[in-house]
Amino acid sequence: MTAAPSPTTDPAETLRAFLARVDAGEDYYALLGLPRTATDPEVQTAFVQWARVLHPDLPALRGELRDGATRAFQTLTRVRLTLTDPQRRSEYLTSLGEVFQDSASDTPNPPLAKIHLHRARQLIQRRDWAQAEGALRVADRLFGEPFDTECRSELAWAIFNNHNHPEHDRMRETRAMLDDVIGAQRGPAAIANAHYYLAVWYKIGGDMAKVKQHLENCVKINQKHVEAQRELRLFERRRSTSVQVPQAKVPAGAAGRASSPANGRASSAAVPAAGAGGDGKKVPLTKKPSLLERLFGGKR
């Protein structure tokens, strides 16, 4: 690993050595002289040290060395931007096929934990719950104590949706983790998500009072939580349609038509039977005259 240069290092010599390493394809961490578990402040410090001897505006790098210094400084800038941005850093390490040897360590490493958290979110978008759970468990361990509420809530959600686990186990672990997030009382966004996830959890069990309570708590914390707002609207809609409007009773034998609530047609009980009058007595039926009878005035 190459140590970062000091301001007293010969700029021209340092420039030639640095460009040779760039052309040799050394990775970004090696260029800065850092391990792959380096934190953002460590990356920033190394960048400043290298920039002090490779900046193209230095008097020693003017003239024929200026183009090389410009290329070196642009490389340094790209390295810094990549390694201090979680998404870019994750994508870069993925392109290297980095396995993260320190991922199995119990030593807290928040920068590395953020990379695993970012990967897990990508997996969640693809509904790859098993892989997402694995990445989130690593991130949760690397965050250390106190635990990161955002990571813990997403881990609970991944476990809840990972049907590779026995139902009783995943439901129990999900509930415990979400209760921990809410009890931690830090990270409003994570707490709002935890309430929403618990609403879904209780919905599985049919406890609609708890569902409503957690949805309302979620929206109270985060008024822009789209899923919780939608579930609340559906909850109120189902509640309003479940209320039955009492119908007026029709006395037995009462005249008039009674509409059926199902199809709006007259009820058969309210329609007089064929051949009956309004008082229920039979009415003699008369035969309709035929065409010949109407023409010739009677039977022939």
Overview of this protein structure:
By secondary structure, the protein is mostly helical. Among the domains are: 74 residues, DnaJ domain (Helix Hairpins); 123 residues, Tetratricopeptide repeat domain (Serine Threonine Protein Phosphatase 5, Tetratricopeptide repeat, Alpha Horseshoe), CATH 1.25.40. Helix content is 59%, strand content 0%. It contains 13 helices and no strands.
Topology:
Layout: H1 11-23, H2 28-32, H3 40-54, H4 66-83, H5 86-96, H6 110-125, H7 129-143, H8 149-161, H9 167-184, H10 188-205, H11 208-221, H12 226-241, H13 291-296
Helix pairs in contact: 1-4, 3-4, 5-6, 6-7, 7-8, 8-9, 8-10, 9-10, 10-11, 11-12
List keywords for this structure.
elongated, 300 residues, Helix Hairpins, mainly alpha, Serine Threonine Protein Phosphatase 5, Tetratricopeptide repeat
Strand content: under 5%
Number of strands: 0
CATH superfamily of the domain at 116-238: Tetratricopeptide repeat domain
Total count of helical runs of at least 4 residues: 13
Distance between the termini: 128 Å
What structural class do the secondary elements suggest? mainly alpha
Overall geometry: elongated
Radius of gyration: 38 Å
Helix coverage percent of residues? Answer: 55-70%
- So, CATH architecture of the domain at 116-238? Alpha Horseshoe
CATH class annotation of the domain at 116-238: Mainly Alpha
- What is the H-and-E element order? HHHHHHHHHHHHH
Within the CATH hierarchy, at the fold level, what is the topology of the domain at 116-238? Serine Threonine Protein Phosphatase 5, Tetratricopeptide repeat
Low-pLDDT regions: 253-278
Mean pLDDT: 79
Major pleated sheet? none
